[in-house]
Amino acid sequence: MATFWPALGEIYLLKSIASVIVGGTPVTGGIGTILGTFIGGLILELIETGILAVGVTGFWIRLVHGVVIIVALIAQVTIREREIRRMRTIMGIG
Q1: How many distinct structural domains can be found in the chain?
Q2: 5 within a domain of the structure (yes/no)
Q3: How far is Cα 27 from Cα 22, in angstroms, rounded to an integer?
């Protein structure tokens, strides 16, 4: 009989979420693309490869993934606010 652990794929959860967010899918809802998610995954793997090349492992890789998620979220919010301001200016709404 095979053994199954419920938390078996838990290590991939942070990477998956980070790939989608870095790929450009809005967390607030919206449309994302497979290509964007793929590029987000490539970016994360390049960052992870660079960290591993330096010799850092474990906790620090997950910390960097978390920081990348936060930076991507800040970028999304900033871009969205600029778009809203631009649309208000175009429409003449204060």
Answers
A1: 1
A2: no
A3: 10
Residue 56 domain boundaries: 11-91
Could you tell me if 36 and 25 are in contact, meaning their C-beta atoms sit under 8 angstroms apart? Answer: yes
Instruction: Answer yes or no: is 48 within a domain.
Output: yes
What would the mean pLDDT of 10-35 be, rounded to a whole number? 85
Q: What is the token pair recorded at 67? A: 């920081």
Under a CB-based contact definition with an 8 Å cutoff, are residues 29 and 79 in contact? no
pLDDT given at position 74: 92
Task: Write down the residue that tokens 């970028």 correspond to.
Answer: 75
Pick the residue with more confidence: 66 or 4?
66
List the one residue out of 72, 60, 62 whose CA is nearest residue 20. 72
Question: Residue 81 falls within a domain, yes or no?
Answer: yes
User: Which residues are within 8 A (CB) of 68 and not within 5 positions of it... i.e. 6 or more apart?
Assistant: 18, 22, 44, 47
Flag whether 3 is in a domain: no
pTM above 0.85, yes or no: no
